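Tutorial handout. Part one gives the primary structure; part two gives the three-dimensional structure as tokens.
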Amino acid sequence: MILQFFMSGGYALSFPYLAIYLKKERHIPFWIVGIFLTTSLFLAAAGRLFGGSLSDKLGRRPLLTWGILARTLCVFSIGMAIAYRAAFPVIILIDFIGALAAGGFNSSLMAWVSDHFDESLRVKAYSAMRTTANLGWAVGPAIAGLAVGKGYAVLFLGTAVVYLFCSIGVLFFIEESHPLILKGEKIEHRVFSSTLSILRHKKFPLFFFGTFLIGTVMGHLIVPLSLYATEALNLSPKEIGLLFSLNGGMVVCFQVWLIHVLRNRRLPHILAWGSLAYALGYASLAWASGLKSLEMAVAVITLGEMAIAPALSALASNLSAPNERGRALGATGFFHQMGYALSPLIGGLGLQFFSKMRPCPYWFFIGALALLAAWVFARVKDSPLHALPHQ
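Part two.
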């Protein structure tokens, strides 16, 4: 959890400012910045997919170690590229390499957590990770607000220092957790073919489809909602910041509590109820007229987020055997990230045509996607062992 706090805080220290830097300082058109950021998200998704499979073959610790070291080097390189005004394609290339490394690191970290907790405790463990990650998101931008006056390069170099600290922590304190490797068993599987096999496994396609759908819905909280609040409802940047503070604050205060309340529900049902909360929250945006109504919608959306995010990883772990946890979690992250990456694109197109209409029909469409996700998750089969017991 400490590692998650520093990784999240370090990321929030600099990367939210990358698009601003490219537009304001380098005068890169918004549409090019958008393509760049979307491509970076797709590469991170690919890193999650194949990183998870590699962690099944090589172990968790090698992927965690090399992933964080590569990430540290890439962030440091971006800071130096900004300081010395390197060409835009150089920054693109470095960020793309870092995105692949980040994806592999994240899948390995989720698998490492899964290895350490049994089925009844995984959802609580992932909930605790989300709480600490949101604490990092609160601290990172606060520090960035004080340091941004010294230049964007300082922010990225600061992130590199934080990541270097995390690298030392991984090297000295993170031990191998792969159950088969710990037993000394030889693992033989081909990364590409084994990745395809997890995608075709009869247990997972329906779950992955729901994950993609809800990833598309969840991705609308950042860019599409910000654009809608700014362009259609004339909210100020400060007011938009309050919405995200509400989201992060609710996660920090209520994430673990909500999972405790839902402890006796089966994981597919938690995912279905969370998707219904998303449907209600986004549908209510269609009638939003100002900050208060947006806050109410975001509060409902955040309830859905708190239910779904830890339950996705927990169910993926529970549906997989010990020798395929990395692949299952990597594929889950891949489909979720793919949906998330598409949300700025379809959100931008949809709101361009419908944002001025009242009620706004686009948010009904997103609510309908969430309803479809709820129906899909409700049909995912698991065994009685995957229900959370009384504790």
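Part three, for discussion. Confidence is low (pLDDT under 50) at residues 383-391. The CA atoms of residues 177 and 308 lie 25 Å apart.
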